[in-house]
Amino acid sequence: MATSYVGRVSSFDEILKSPKIDYHELSKMCFSGVPDSAGIRSLCWKILLGYLPPVTAEWPDILAKKRMLYTEFLQEMIIQPGSKKYSTNRTDVTMEDHPLNPNPDSQWSQYFKDNEVLLQIDKDTRRLQPDIGFFQQATEFPCKELVDVNTSLETLRKRVEHTMLQSVAVAKSRSGITNMSGGKKPKKMEFGHDTLEEGQEAHWEVLERILFIYAKLNPGQSYVQGMNEIIGPLYYVFASAKDPASTEHAEADTFFCFTNLMSKMRDNFIKTLDDSPTGINAKMQQLMQMVKKCAPKLWLRFQQQDLKPQFFGFRWLTLWLTQEFPLPDVIRLWDSLLSDEGNPEFLLCVCCAMILSQKDTLIEGDFATNIKLLQNYPAIDVHQLLKKAIEVREHCS
User: Fold this and answer.
1) Using CA atoms, how far apart are residues 292 and 286, in angstroms rounded to an integer?
2) Strand ranges in the chain using DSSP code E only, listed in sequence order
3) Which parts of 223-326 fold into alpha helices (H)?
4) Count of Cβ atoms closer than 10 Å to residue 144 Cβ
C-alpha cells in the first residue's frame, strides 16, 4: 500500500512539473483520488477549476495578477466603505451622503443593503463545519490590507457586531415607550474553545469576506444560503495545504476558484431557473430516471409513497453532498466531481448510488422511515460508493 501511495505521488509530481499539463490525463488521475501529499490536491483543484492554465510557465504571472486584482477588490469594497469617510460622526455631511437620504442609489442606501447580506453571510460562516473546529481557529495569515489600516477600519466582523449592537440598543417597553440602552463592544470574541485576540482572524472570517465580495460583484445573484457550504471545502484544501506559498494566498485563490465553480452550478442558486432545462428540478427528475433504470422496483416504491426527490435530492445536488458526509469524504468525492468529464453528470451518478446502496432498506421502509434515512444519510465507505457510482454511469450511459 505504501509503495502504491508513493507511486501515485510520484505520478502526480511528474505530470504537475511538465511544461504543459496534459489536462485529460490529469483529470483521469484526479478522478481516482488525489494523494494527501503537501500541495498536490491544492494545485490539482486550481487546474481543474480553470484558475491555472495548462502551461506551467504562465503560473507565476497569472497568480501575481489575480492576487493583486483581489487586493483591489478588498480596497474598493471593504476597506474604503469602512473608512472614516463613511462615519456617522461627520459634521460636514450633506443630504447626498446622509444616512437618511431616501435616494435608493445613495452610498448609504447601498451600505444598508450590503449589511442585510452581510448579516446572513456572517450567520452562515460562523457555524460552518463545527465538528472539525478548523474554521473557528485563527488563521496564520490574516488579511494584511486590513491589518495595515486597522486604526481607521471596521473589519466585517466588527461591522456585524456594530450593526447588531445598534439594532438591540433601541427597544420598546411593554407600554410602548422607546428605551435607549447602551452596550460595550467586546474586545474578544468566543468561538467554542478558541479565543480570538485583537488583530487575529478566524478562518470563517476569511470566508465571510470572500462571500461578501462575491455578492458585491454579482448583484444579480448576490449571496444565497448554501454558498458557505460550497466554499468550505475549497478554502480548507487551499488553507491547509502545508505549502506556505499556497496557504498564504488561500483567500485570493479561493475567491477565484469559487467564482469559477459557481459559474458551473449557478443555475442551482437562481430560483427563476429552477424549471429551466439546466435547473435543479430537471436534475432531480434526471436522478429519478436513473433510479428507475437501475432499480425499477425501488423507483415504483418511491412512486407509491409519493417520495419526491425534492425531499432529499435538492440538498444533495445543490450543495454537492457537503451536508451528507464528513469533510474528508467530501474532499475525496470532490476529487472525482471536479475532474468529471463524462456523461451523465457524475454527481447524479453518486446520488443515484447513494439511493441504490440503501435499496433493501428503502423498499421495506415506510414513508417516514425512508425520509429520515435519506435526509440523514448513514455512514458509508466513500470508496465503495464511488465504485457503485461508476457502475451507475456505465449502466445509464
Assistant:
1) 10
2) 170-172, 178-180, 189-191, 194-196
3) 227-239, 244-247, 250-265, 280-294, 296-305, 313-318
4) 11
Do the beta carbons of residue 99 and residue 108 sit within 8 Å? yes
Bridge partner list, 189: 196
- 235, 203 Cβ separation under 8 angstroms: yes
CA distance 353 to 291: 9
Instruction: Retrieve residue 333's grid coordinates.
Output: 468525492
Helix (H) or strand (E) holding 22: none
Q: Torsion angle, CA of 33/284/51/389, rounded to 10 degrees?
A: 10
Residue with cell 440598543: 169
Backbone angles phi, psi at 138, to 5 degrees: -75, 135
In whole angstroms, what is the distance from residue 142 CA to residue 367 CA? Answer: 49
Digit-coded pLDDT (tens) for 319-366 = 999 999 999 999 999 999 999 988 899 999 999 999 999 999 999 999
| Dihedral Cα 330, 333, 334, 340, nearest 10 deg | -160
Q: pLDDT tens digit string along 205-239?
A: 999 999 999 999 998 889 999 999 999 999 999 99
pTM reported for the whole predicted model = 0.85
Q: How far apart are CA 259 and CA 269, in angstroms?
A: 13
Burial class (CB in 10 A: 0-12, 13-18, 19+), 182: exposed
Per residue in 157-215, pLDDT (tens digit) is 777 766 665 544 444 444 444 343 444 444 444 444 456 777 788 999 999 999 999 99
Q: In Å, how far from its chain's centre is CA 389? A: 24
Question: How far is CA 160 from each of CA 20, 112, 168, rounded to the nearest angstrom?
Answer: 46, 12, 12
- The torsion angles phi and psi of 202, rounded to 5 degrees, stand at -80, 160
Contact 317, 280 (CB under 8 A): yes
Q: Are 334 and 233 in contact (CB under 8 A)?
A: yes
